Amino acid sequence: MSRRVPGIVLFVLSLPLLLLGITAWREADRETGVRAWQLEQSRTVADPAERERFVGYAESTQWRIDDAEYNRTMLLAAGAAGMAGGVVVLATARRRREFEPAEVKATGAVGTAAPRFTACEACGRQISVAATACPQCGHPHRPEPVAVKATPPEPVDATRRAFYATLIALGLGSAMVIYTVLFDSLSETVLVRISPLWIFPIVFGYYGLVAQRMQARLQETHLDTVSDQLLDVIKESHWLGRVFAFLLYAPFLLVKSRQPWVTALVGSLIWAIALALFFSVIFPTL
Predict the structure, then answer these.
(1) Which of 103, 207, 250, 273 is most buried, judged by most C-beta within 10 A?
(2) Termini Cα distance of the chain
(3) Rounded to whole angstroms, how far apart are CA atoms 25 and 5?
(4) Average of per-residue pLDDT across 39-56
């Protein structure tokens, strides 16, 4: 799969979020105008019962305004983040393509050296230095040993690993405070609305740690991206583990990059887009 596909997927997923966010924005403006009219009526009508009725209408309208403004903020933020993630993925893919060696672009092989030849001692024909015999006269030839340059393993970035671990700790700590200390003082609606604030750091941090671990194994397996490495690990697990892993790492596997932070960022953004759609569109209908 092309490395540009995840970026295109992010753009496609973000576009409806932006459209829904604009729709929620217009709805909030319309409801604000309705509430202003209702408050004006509550001040001008002579009948006290009518005034109370318009005040009640204004309170109900304010709830709809709050919901519309929340949906507007969530949808536009998730859509903008998805667009930004798409730009990052496309820019990374383009930069990687520009800096690939010429032999990689031509043949797809990494670091393939040009074959070397030598003259056969019996007939003088040019044969490969790795050949064991001349293909023309059959004279035996001792192949030259090929020196293999050992590639040192890429060091794990301890700073980023600490950053990912800190994000996970902050997310878990925030969830603990919300659902223990603040639980009784927050409504169900507020609890749902603030859930992305602790879910996103956990997903981003966890994906970052997994991506770093997969990057360290690329030196041994010589696969292309961290998602390819994770997919290789998943295939070796039990079928039940594979099902669970595909559900957990589905956004992760879409990103084709060797950089752990790119994989973690885009994967967590896909989760953020899914959460924004769920909380803004699906959850209110339940």
Answers:
(1) 207
(2) 37
(3) 30
(4) 86
HEC readout, 204-239: HHHHHHHHHHHHHHHHHHCCCCHHHHHHHHHHCCCH
Residue by residue, what is the 3-state secondary structure of the chain? CCCCHHHHHHHHHHHHHHHHHHHHHHHHHHHHHHHHHHHHHHHHCCCHHHHHHHHHHHHHHHHHHHHHHHHHHHHHHHHHHHHHHHHHHHHHHHHHHHCCCHHHHHHCCCCCCCCCEEECCCCCCEEECCCCECCCCCCECCCCCCCCCCCCCCCCCHHHHHHHHHHHHHHHHHHHHHHHHCHHHCCHHHHHHHHHHHHHHHHHHHHHHHHHHHHHHHHHHCCCCHHHHHHHHHHCCCHHHHHHHHHHHHHHHHCCCCCHHHHHHHHHHHHHHHHHHHHHHHHHHC
Q: Mention every residue, 6+ apart, whose C-beta is less than 8 A from residue 33.
A: none
Sign of CA dihedral 284, 82, 9, 268: negative
User: What's at 69, amino acid-wise?
Assistant: E
190-209 tens-digit pLDDT: 787 788 788 888 999 999 99
**What's the chain's Rg over C-alpha atoms?**
30
The rounded distance, in Å, linking the Cα atoms of 109 and 103 is 7
pTM over 0.70: no
Contacts of 198 (CB under 8 A, 6+ apart): 170, 171, 172, 174, 175, 178
The whole-angstrom separation of Cα 197 and Cα 105 is 42
Take residue 119 and report the two structure tokens written for it: 């003259």
Sequence letter at residue 146: V
